[in-house]
């Protein structure tokens, strides 16, 4: 499977599941507070994508007031895109148009240098689009719709996180676009990680697939830290899983000896045949890259074990040393994922440390 960006899909819908009504005016479903939140999510993304249908219907700018503007991305089969649309004329950022092969020559001629037109095969292949974005350095993609695009991304199972906002009114028009159309969606329940009231709307935030598994396992690692004996240093938990998310070993700081680090304690329990080629180690704290207690750091233990994926919540604060575990692991070609929203849970187990809590 080719590498792709982390995909965050975002939509605001009415109580009866519509993204818009049938009028010419753009329907505001979000509250002012929610539009501010969406703006911040945009600022945190490397690129933002809407379908050609949304460009034609809404003429959006897709800029952010809160931070750097993301690269703008769209997709089209027909090639019907107006070079005068605000998508192309606003923002000093790259604009990428993924087009089905037959539309490419005319679109290149029509758009000139206002956008880069990328051939995305025929029929348009969303996996190819995502692999190309990854090659262009896009690590985090926000997909803002509309209906056909949300249906496409969700049924192709390429959405990691879904932000769904419910507005307190009905649309009730059969011809209006719904959040999604019919299709074969991923089976199983998504992981609800947050509900938030923003003015009169509610945000529901879900994780799917690997993102949901990572969140669950990292939370387990953080909860293991509660078993650590009292300590003057970090209280950390670790979980190691195989390619199928089966737990191979767990550990926590001070488990058998006061000098034990959580990752080290978990790694020490693995037999010689442990299937580590596609394993993940979850650690509540960034793996250490310098230590006084023992000669080998957890970063080095993980490198030596050949574990390719590392997921952690809390960047090691400079209490004892300047930590570089994440950078060293990335430099060695390992996949390193930070989930900072779980850091407060890890900090709760470490309020004995200076400057924490
Ligand atoms: N409330 C909200 O959060 C949002 C609401 N909206 C609303 O959504 C509506 C637009 O939605 P919709 O009309 O569905 O348009 P979309 O924005 O979802 O764009 C769909 C277009 O994408 C192109 N496309 C290319 N390949 C595919 C594929 N495999 N599957 C699907 N699309 C493909 C096609 O363009 P082409 O036709 O050029 O070939 C297609 O018509 C508007 O009313 C807008 O206001 C939009 C975003 C957010
Ligand atoms: N109406 C609506 C949304 N619509 C989205 O916002 C886009 C407009 O972007 P811009 O021109 O940059 O402000 C529009 O095309 C569509 O993608 N989004 C939301 O979060 N809530 C809403 O109620």
Notes on the protein architecture:
The structure is a single chain. With 357 residues, the chain is of the alpha/beta class. The protein folds into 2 domains: 202 residues, Dihydrofolate Reductase, subunit A (3-Layer(aba) Sandwich), CATH 3.40.430.10; 138 residues, Cytidine Deaminase, domain 2. Helices cover 26% and strands 23% of the residues. The chain contains 11 helices and 14 strands. It has a 9-stranded mixed β-sheet, with helices on both faces. A 5-stranded mixed β-sheet has the order 11-10-12-13-14. The longest helix has 16 residues. The model has no long low-confidence stretch (mean pLDDT 96).
Please outline what is shown here.
The protein is α/β, with parallel strands linked by helices and 357 residues long. Helix content is 26%, strand content 23%.
**Physical arrangement of strands within the biggest beta sheet:** 5-4-3-2-6-1-7-9-8
Can you tell me the CATH superfamily of the largest domain? Dihydrofolate Reductase, subunit A
Distance between the termini: 42 Å
Question: What integer value in Å does the Rg equal?
Answer: 23 Å
Provide the CATH topology of the largest domain. Dihydrofolate Reductase, subunit A
Q: Please work out how many helical segments DSSP would assign.
A: 11
Overall form: elongated
CATH architecture of the largest domain: 3-Layer(aba) Sandwich
- Approximate helicity band: 25-40%
Q: Roughly what fraction of the amino acids lie in strands?
A: 15-25%
Topology pattern, helix = H, strand = E = EHEHEHEHEHEHEEEHEEHEHEHEH
The low-pLDDT segments are none
- Bound small molecules, which ones? NADPH dihydro-nicotinamide-adenine-dinucleotide phosphate, ligand AOF
**Strand elements, count:** 14
Q: Kindly provide the name of the CATH class of the largest domain.
A: Alpha Beta
Number of domains: 2
Keywords: NADP, Oxidoreductase
GO molecular function: 5-amino-6-(5-phosphoribosylamino)uracil reductase activity; diaminohydroxyphosphoribosylaminopyrimidine deaminase activity
Pathway: Cofactor biosynthesis; riboflavin biosynthesis; 5-amino-6-(D-ribitylamino)uracil from GTP: step 2/4
Organism: Amycolatopsis bartoniae
